[in-house]
């Protein structure tokens, strides 16, 4: 993917994300409004609608990538994107469930440039709000009368189990001295790829696509999701806090076994060995150590290798898309979103 193509894709993706957020927001607000008051407050805060005191806040939470993928997948198989709005809302609820629980597990204090829900409301309410969002997702998905509702709800359940297993592996890796690249990529495919695959599959199911096409779009989303995870890894090493909404070097500070870190020691270089020693210390890192740890990741080739892998997964995703197109479908939106995923600012 050339830089020109990526820039063009990013330019086109902006309106797609805005449109997805606009279409999904009304259904999400109606659904969350039915929750008890405390859960409604925490969920609305997580979704960016209001502040912790309940006062209104301009804008929304996140980029709405997963809803945009669901709507774009519907168009790619010849359907109308608006018909996939319940699917798009459901995947956004699942995503935010996972984010709420992630912030609890990782003890994150900030999320998207403001206090995390855990920090604002406490651990218990953040967990309970995540649970409420997870329960609400299949209810939203089952609305309407399209014949694939049961299959859509089944797929959502399978995906949530994959997400939980991916989160378990990610946490388990932090306690291990050695993690193989194969193990790491399998974790990334479950933790991030599964939900992007579900987004595409549900969008296609919502407009009656044949099961073979649904499976192909699920595979497309999984490959794209793995690339997205790797791009996030790169942000976690040297990302700009103004972009990420998290402190610089957050992954290094937590000794996360992200792909650049896992790949760096493989060659047995001096920088790779220094990184292994630093990660092997069982004490809190000093404020200066995350910045120092980033240097051997780069020098040992971990960062460049992760960048190459993200590109390869994106190329693989686009190849699947090329082979699965239906007559009358328009894959322009999916391709623009794929470019956005790979070329995130770092």
Q: Which structural class is indicated by helix and strand composition?
A: mainly alpha
Largest sheet: 2 strands, antiparallel
The rounded Rg comes to 20 Å
Q: Which range best describes the helical content: under 10%, 10-25%, 25-40%, 40-55%, 55-70% or over 70%?
A: over 70%
As residue ranges, the low-confidence spans are 1-9
- Give the terminus-to-terminus CA distance: 17 Å
Number of domains: 1
Can you characterise this structure?
With 346 residues, the protein is mainly α. It is 71% helix and 1% strand. It is built from 16 helices and two strands. Strands 1-2 form a two-stranded antiparallel sheet. It starts with a helix and ends with a helix.
Please tag this protein with its features.
2 strands, mainly alpha, single chain, 346 residues, Farnesyl Diphosphate Synthase, 71% helix
Outline the fold blueprint.
Layout: H1 3-32, H2 37-46, H3 65-76, H4 85-106, E1 110-111, E2 114-115, H5 117-121, H6 123-141, H7 149-174, H8 181-206, H9 211-238, H10 241-244, H11 250-253, H12 259-263, H13 270-280, H14 289-299, H15 302-324, H16 332-342
Antiparallel strand pairs: 1-2
Short account of what is shown:
It contains 16 helices and 2 strands.
